[in-house]
Amino acid sequence: MFEHLDRLAPDPILGLMAAFRADTDARKVDLGVGVYRDDRGDTPVMQAVREAERAVLERQRTKTYVAPAGNPAFNEALRRLALGEHSALERSERVRAVQAPGGCGALRLGAELIRAARPEAVVHVSNPTWANHVPLLCGCGLKLERYPYFEAATGGVAFEAMMDALQKLPPRSVVLLHASCHNPTGADLEEGQWRQIAALLAERELLPFIDMAYQGLGRGVAEDAFGLRLLAEQLPEALIAVSCSKNFGLYRERVGCLITVSQNGNAAEAALTQLVRIARGLYSMPPDHGAAIVAEILGNESLRGAWQRELDAMRERIVTLREAAAEALAASCPDRDFSHIVRQRGMFSYLGVDADTVRRLREAHHVYMTDDSRINVAGLRQENIAYFAEAVARALAQ
């Protein structure tokens, strides 16, 4: 049966990870894989997670299944985290939440729900967008199109072009938006721009599908959810995919949630029943361990405070790295402008060099990034920022 299958090329990110691991040069710098790293180059387990995990394991008396909708305490906690502790919408009958295996699982659940409601629906994603959006959304049969988003000349959002494209979409189109810390560019919408988008989506009857994978790593927990909360409050419907990989450091536990906002309670309950059926058919039951840890943290005042402080420290470190990298690049490459790195938010930025320069950085200088020059700023360390900047200068000069 399988002898006629074509051999596929490796995933670019996975291939980059393998090449980095095989590189024996002590100077090597990994700016490719999208995980947070500390100044030792480690992806640490947060202390709040360790304490919550101990508490969960001490109480745990069974490993039986959770329901297809997942851990109820987790779902409730994620609703409050995303929509706001004191949000009237969060407490309304219009909102439901379903646990998912990671943010990827939440995106796929949302895509399947869109397909169940309207198989001909088109999802419009930013150009560029996170590479895995494409297989996650197209894998269930939805069609994808792109709207302008990134302006390479400034390193910011091409907002007028974006608004012009969205204005032309037919009613009932789906628009995928990054809540904050845009992956791969780091270029985020400002509050005034979010307000204009909310008005346009309402006018054109467009459905926002919001991906929030980095809450707390851009400007802050509440600040990073500003656009999401605005759209959820002002529009009749919204889908929100939430990931706990980055801000809780629970990458391998696969912790995510899909939140639905519907026009009324009946529609919300119908969406929930559809999502339970979809989940049952895809993976039957979600994993509970990571979700139980998040529920423990968010439900315990002391643990939540500790988690918040750790998350703040992570965000502040990224800001410091951005400033140091931009300064070092300005010194090493005086003819190039890298100031956009400081203005952008979250873990990612486009360095703004071509694929040949990226290849030279990798082969001659052991600096690894994706071919489009996306860098994970959190992969830098204070001790290698100068080397990184000098390597960029040498690669540009070759």
What features would you describe in this structure?
The protein is of the alpha/beta class and 398 residues long. It folds into 2 domains: 12-44 and 313-397, Aspartate Aminotransferase, domain 1, CATH 3.90.1150; 65-299, Type I PLP-dependent aspartate aminotransferase-like (Major domain) (Aspartate Aminotransferase, domain 2, 3-Layer(aba) Sandwich). 46% of the residues lie in helices and 14% in strands. It is built from 15 helices and 13 strands. The protein has helices at residues 12-22, 47-59, 72-83, 102-117, 133-138, 159-167, 191-204, 221-224, 226-234, 265-282, 289-298, 301-332, 340-343, 355-365, 385-397, and strands at residues 29-30, 95-101, 122-127, 143-148, 150-151, 156-157, 174-178, 207-212, 238-243, 255-261, 348-350, 367-368, 374-376. Strands 2-10-9-8-7-3-4 form a 7-stranded mixed beta sheet, sandwiched between helices.
